[in-house]
């Protein structure tokens, strides 16, 4: 698994991005974190053609891990309808994308906070949450979905 922040990926040269693409195509998993909600449209190249529209951060009431095979079996279909989560999400994913964590709005609409796109024999996992934790945040007060999305916890 290769983990990279969006800011670093954006600074990467064309050659560096192509090198990452070759590694993913050969079977690596690339985890991209820190996609800023103010971005709006996010280009998925060089791993997929097209873009996704990142919706502004807002409050969701509940989450659900999908049954996606990229998730550990113990997390598949896990859900919590009571958690209140402030997050960014994508409502419409490209056809090749697989949602891994769905967030639920109070009206029932669901959006993806974590999704993957297959590329060759590998996958690129896009985490739409910021790398910044709220100041003074106590780990016990951070919902499970946010803790699992943070590689440092």
How is this structure best described in words?
The structure is a single chain. This protein has 153 residues and is α+β, with helices and mostly antiparallel strands. 16% of the residues lie in helices and 41% in strands. The protein has 3 helices and 8 strands, in the order E-H-H-E-E-E-E-E-E-E-H. Strands 1, 2, 3, 4, 5, 6, 7 and 8 form an 8-stranded mixed sheet that branches. The two termini are 17 Å apart. About 5% of the residues have low confidence.
Short description:
It contains 3 helices and 8 strands, in the order βααβββββββα.
Overall helicity? 10-25%
Major β-sheet profile:
8 strands, mixed
How many β-strand runs? 8
What structural class is derived from the secondary structure elements? alpha+beta
DSSP summary: helix tally: 3
Give the amount of beta strand, in percent: 35-45%
Mean pLDDT: 84
Low-confidence stretches: 134-140
CA-based gyration radius = 15 Å
What are the secondary-structure elements, in order, as H or E? EHHEEEEEEEH
Principal-axes shape call: globular
Keywords:
153 residues, alpha+beta, 8-stranded mixed β-sheet, 16% helix
Spell out the blueprint of helices and strands.
Elements: E1 2-5, H1 6-11, H2 14-25, E2 29-33, E3 41-43, E4 51-65, E5 79-90, E6 97-104, E7 110-119, E8 122-127, H3 144-149
Parallel strand pairs: 1-2, 2-8
Antiparallel strand pairs: 3-4, 4-5, 4-6, 6-7, 7-8
């Amino acid at each position: 698994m290769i983990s990279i922040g969006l800011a670093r990926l954006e600074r990467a040269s064309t050659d560096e991005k192509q090198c990452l693409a070759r590694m993913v195509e050969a079977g690596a998993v690339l985890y991209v974190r820190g996609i800023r909600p103010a971005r709006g449209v996010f280009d998925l190249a060089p791993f997929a053609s097209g873009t996704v529209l990142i919706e502004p951060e807002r409050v969701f009431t509940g989450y659900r891990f999908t049954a996606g095979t990229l998730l550990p079996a113990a997390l598949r279909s896990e859900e919590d309808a009571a958690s209140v989560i402030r997050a960014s999400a994508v409502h419409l994913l490209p056809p090749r994308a697989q949602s891994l964590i769905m967030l639920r709005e109070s009206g029932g609409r669901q959006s993806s906070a974590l999704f993957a796109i297959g590329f060759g024999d590998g996958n690129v996992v896009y985490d739409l949450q910021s790398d910044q934790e709220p100041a003074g945040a106590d780990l016990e007060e951070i919902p499970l979905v946010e803790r699992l999305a943070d590689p440092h916890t």
